[in-house]
C-alpha cells in the first residue's frame, strides 16, 4: 500500500503548529506524528472529517496514493484513532 500523507505540507502552508492542529482536531500530538510519519494503518472518518474542517481542505489534499516504490520504508506501519 502506498498512501501518502500530506499533513506536514498543509501545516506549513497554513502556518499552523502541530500542537494547535492536534488540539483543534481532538487527537494527541503523538497521533499527529504517527500520521505525519506515514506510520498510520487506519484513520477514522470522524478524524479525517475533523482534519479537513481544521485545515479547510478536502480529504484528497491530506491523502494521496502512489506506487509502493514511491513511498520510503519508514512511511509504513502504526494506527491512528
Characterise the protein shown here:
By secondary structure, the chain is mainly alpha-helical. It has a single domain, classed as 434 Repressor (Amino-terminal Domain) (Orthogonal Bundle), CATH 1.10.260. It is built from 5 helices and 2 strands. The chain has helices at residues 7-13, 18-25, 29-36, 45-55, 59-62; strands at residues 3-5, 63-65. It has a two-stranded antiparallel sheet with strand order 1-2. The protein is globular.
Mean pLDDT: 87
Structural class, judged by helices and strands? mainly alpha
Which percent range fits the helix content? Answer: 40-55%
Number of helices: 5
- CATH names the topology as 434 Repressor (Amino-terminal Domain)
Q: What integer value in Å does the Rg equal?
A: 12 Å
Strand neighbour order, sheet with most strands: 1-2
CATH class: Mainly Alpha
Overall CATH architecture: Orthogonal Bundle
Series of secondary-structure elements, N-terminal to C-terminal: EHHHHHE
DSSP summary, beta strand count: 2
In angstroms, what separates the terminal alpha carbons?
19 Å
> In this structure, how is the largest beta sheet organized?
2 strands, antiparallel
- Please indicate the percent range of residues in DSSP E strands (runs of 2 or more): 5-15%
Structure keywords:
7% strand; 5 helices; 434 Repressor (Amino-terminal Domain); single chain; 81 residues; mainly alpha; two-stranded antiparallel sheet; 2 strands
Give a summary of the structure in a few sentences:
The chain has about 80 residues and is mainly α. The protein has helices spanning about 5-15, 20-25, 30-35, 45-55, 60, and strands spanning about 5, 65. The chain has a single domain, classed as 434 Repressor (Amino-terminal Domain) (Orthogonal Bundle).
Amino acid at each position: 500500500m502506498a498512501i501518502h500523507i500530506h499533513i506536514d505540507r498543509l501545516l506549513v502552508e497554513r502556518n499552523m503548529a502541530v500542537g494547535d492542529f492536534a488540539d483543534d482536531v481532538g487527537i494527541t500530538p503523538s497521533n499527529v506524528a504517527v500520521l505525519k510519519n506515514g506510520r498510520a494503518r487506519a484513520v477514522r472518518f470522524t478524524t479525517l472529517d475533523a482534519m479537513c474542517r481544521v485545515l479547510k481542505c478536502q480529504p484528497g489534499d491530506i491523502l494521496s496514493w502512489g506506487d509502493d516504490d514511491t513511498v520510503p520504508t519508514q512511511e509504513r506501519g502504526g494506527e491512528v484513532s
